[in-house]
Amino acid sequence: MKKLIPRFRLQIKIYWSLIFSLTLLTSCSSENIPTGPTSLNSRFTEEQPSLSGNGRFLAFVSNRNGAHQLLVYDLQQQQFLRTQGLSRPNTIVESPSLSYTGRYITYITSDQGRPVVALYDRAAQQSQILTPIYRGWARNPKISPDGRYVVFETSARGQWDIEVLDRGPNIELDIPNGVNVNAP
Prior knowledge:
Blueprint: H1 4-27, E1 46-51, E2 57-62, E3 69-74, E4 79-80, E5 93-98, E6 104-111, E7 114-121, E8 126-129, E9 138-143, E10 149-154, E11 161-166
Antiparallel strand pairs: 1-2, 2-3, 3-4, 5-6, 6-7, 7-8, 9-10, 10-11
C-alpha cells in the first residue's frame, strides 16, 4: 500500500506539469503574432532594434522577403517607410542607429568585403559611406540626436578603439521644429 501513494503523487505532478506546458505552448503560439506587409512582427528574424529620439521611428534588421535588409517602421502611422537605396542586394546591413526624428540612419554595410559605416538621409533618400579610408574594421555606429556626430568602434590600431566623426557645421541638423540652435 505504501508503494502506491508515492507513485500516485508522482502521476499527479506529471499530469499538472503536462497541462501547464500545453497551456504555455498554446498561449505563445505563432498565431498570436500579427503578420502581413504592414505589421511590425513577422515569422522571420528581426533583430538589432533602434528607436529614434522622439520615439516615433524604429529601425531594425530583418530577414523578410528572403533578404537581409534594414527596415524603418513608423510607430505612429503603423507602417513601414520606403527607404530607396538603403539596403542593397548581397550586402550586409547591421547595427542601425537613428537621429532624433529618424532623418539620419547610420549602420554598418559592406564595401569591397569589409564592414564600413554608412549614413542614410531619409529626406534626400541617399546613402553614403562615412569611413571609406579606414584601414581597420568598424562596428556599432551610433549617431547623435542632431545628426552631426557619429561614433563607432574601429580596429585600425590593432585593438578596438572609439572614433568620433564630426560631419561638420554645415550639415542640416535633425532637430525638432521651433528649437533654437546655438552656433558652436
